[in-house]
Every structure is written in structure tokens, then in C-alpha cells.
Amino acid sequence: MAGKLTRMTAEQSRAWISLITTAELLPAALDAQLQRDSSLTHYEYMLLGALLRSGEMRLSDLAAATNATLPRASKVVSRLQQRGLVERESSANDRRSVQIRLTGEGRRQTVLATPGHFETVHRLVLDHLTPEQLNALSDALAPVIAGLDPLQRFGPQLPDN
After folding, report:
1. Cα–Cα distance between 72 and 76 in angstroms, integer?
2. What's the Cα-to-Cα distance from 158 to each of 20, 66, 113, 139, 142, rounded to whole Å?
3. Residue 137: its pLDDT value, please?
4. How far is CA 3 from CA 6, 9, 84, 91, 146, in A?
């Protein structure tokens, strides 16, 4: 139904503006803390975290797991490789595929960055919400996330509580 103007109710507008405002402001705040304290961007931290959880990944799977294009993931992996945080190797099974893994220093940097990142997440978001609100937020966003990522390729798979 392209072209048809669909209006929002006041309730829908309030929820949409709240979601978009959070989506715009939160990444910059997370980036600022991680860059200041750990010399990592938020995307680099997410990429390193995905590798920490998995051990190693194909570059294409790492791009999907971090919601990035293959060129973006490759560029960031190259930067992280120059800094000694990751290494890449041609796959033994598929010569066209590249495997990415953390180095010992990459593992150390990720682990050291985590407490400050978690403190920031608590300070900016979690500490402002009651347990009931946290559950409501998770429940409200679950169908949105399912619609945006039906193959569940982005991020870690979290258990339902």
C-alpha cells in the first residue's frame, strides 16, 4: 500500500519517538565510553564479543552476527588485525572463506572493556527501569526484533525467561 498515508495514534507516536530517540542517542553514548576507556568503538566491541563467544567465525558469519555489510566487517577486522586483536586465516574447508579469531591480546582487551561497558549500560538504561519494566521492554521488543531479523542472525541468541 505504498503512497497511502497511515497516521499514528498518540500512543503509537509516543512509543515510536521513544524508540527512535533511544536508537539515536544510545549508540553514541556507548561509543564515547568505549573509545574513552578502551580505545574501541561500540561496533568493534560487538565484533570482538561475537568472537569471544564463538571462538572463531567465518568473516561472512561475523558480518551477519554484527549486522554489518561484508565490506564494513572486513575493514574493521583489518583495523583490529593491525592492532593485534584478531587474526584471519583462509579456511581449510573453503579456500574462498576467511576465518577470524581473537588473539590473546584481543581476548584480554575485550574482557577488560566489559566491566566499564556494563557499568555504562546500567547507568544509562538498566538502572532506570524496574524488573517489571525490563520484562515488559523485552516482551515488547521481541516481535519487533523477530520481524527485523527472522533468521536470528544478529547478536547472541538470548534465552526467553
Report:
1. 6
2. 23, 15, 21, 13, 11
3. 95
4. 9, 19, 51, 47, 26
- pLDDT tier at 152 (50, 70, 90 boundaries)? confident
Give the tens place of pLDDT for each residue, 6-31.
899 999 999 999 999 999 999 999 99
Residue 60's identity, in one-letter code, is S
What's the burial of 26, exposed, middle or buried (CB within 10 Å: 0-12/13-18/19+)?
A: middle
- Helix or strand run (H / E) with residue 56: strand 56-58
Cβ-count burial of 62 within 10 angstroms (0-12 exposed, 13-18 middle, 19+ buried)? buried
Summarised one tens digit per residue, pLDDT across range 126-147 is 999 999 999 999 999 999 989 9
**Domains in the chain with CATH codes:** 36-148 (1.10.10.10)
Helix axes 42-54, 104-124, angle to 10 degrees: 120
Residues comprising the chain, all counted: 161
- Residue 58 in grid coordinates: 567465518
